[in-house]
Specification:
The protein is built from nine helices and six strands, in the order βαααααβαβαββαβα. By secondary structure, the protein is α/β, with parallel strands linked by helices. The protein has two domains: 5-16 and 101-245, Rossmann fold, CATH 3.40.50; 20-96. The chain has a six-stranded parallel beta sheet with strand order 3-2-1-4-5-6, sandwiched between helices.
Length: 248
């Protein structure tokens, strides 16, 4: 089947940056922002528990609802206040978190050519955060959200990576069978699992291997099983692969 849609991961695929360093700076900003609602010694554990808990979402509720249930320990009385505070943070403070970001060589040329071929473009970033946060990270790379058919985020997704259902949900959302999609990303676990959904996979290599030890230290979090990729290389070489697949 010919390729009709290109799914692109965001972090360290279309944007190159130190995710762990950004996470630590993010925590420095967000914990005090919630200090009057949640004690600082509880906030970090609640946030990480809420994010990790999304792996258990069975698809019956949005990731936002599942996250809030976990974060708030089922306390419905504080849900609205907590969510409003999160949104205020992303609207007012998120862009103030220091970040040194770059883009892989040829990013604009790749996106322009894919659009020129009539490919549908999807930002297939792990939907752990609300839309406003996903789009603000896109701005680090100067990405125009209007060129993308779909952007996954906390509200329009009911699964997260590396659940294979996440990829089926994107396929349904854009109306393309998995066999007509190629998933492009830097993570051999979270991104290349798309192959199990029936998608072609392309593993980018500009970012190297991420070190999350500063985030997971003291927690029983094991890396997932990596998946083989159909193709591997820098993002710029994606065009040669798509050109072949779109006409096969």
């Amino acid at each position: 089947m010919k390729i009709k849609a290109v799914l692109l991961d965001l972090d360290n695929t279309m944007i190159l940056f130190d995710e762990t360093a950004f996470y630590l700076r993010y925590m420095e900003r967000i914990i005090p922002f919630f200090a009057d609602l949640i004690p600082e010694d509880q906030f970090r554990d609640r946030l990480l528990r809420g994010i990790r808990g999304l792996l258990r979402n069975n698809g019956e509720v949005s990731n936002r609802d599942f996250f809030l249930d976990t974060f708030c320990d089922g306390d419905g009385a504080v849900r609205q206040a907590v969510w409003e505070r999160f949104m205020r943070f992303y609207e007012e403070e998120y862009e103030k978190v220091p970040v040194e970001a770059a883009t892989p060589a040829g990013l604009d040329r790749v996106l322009d050519q894919l659009e020129g071929w009539g490919m549908e473009l999807v930002v297939a970033t792990n939907p752990l955060f609300p839309q406003i946060a996903q789009e603000k990270r896109m701005q680090w790379a100067g990405l125009d959200r209007r060129r993308f058919r779909w952007i996954t985020h906390l509200d329009n997704s009911t699964y997260v990576k590396p659940r294979v259902e996440y990829y089926h949900q994107i396929s349904d959302a854009i109306g393309r069978p998995p066999q007509a999609c190629i998933m492009v990303g830097n993570d051999a676990v979270n991104d290349m699992v798309a192959g199990s959904a029936g998608m072609t996979t392309y593993l980018t290599n500009e970012a190297g291997v991420a070190d999350y030890s500063a985030v997971t230290r003291g927690r029983n979090i094991r890396p997932g099983q990596p998946y083989g990729a159909d193709f591997t290389g820098p993002l710029a070489d994606l065009l040669a692969v798509v050109e072949r697949l779109r006409s096969s």
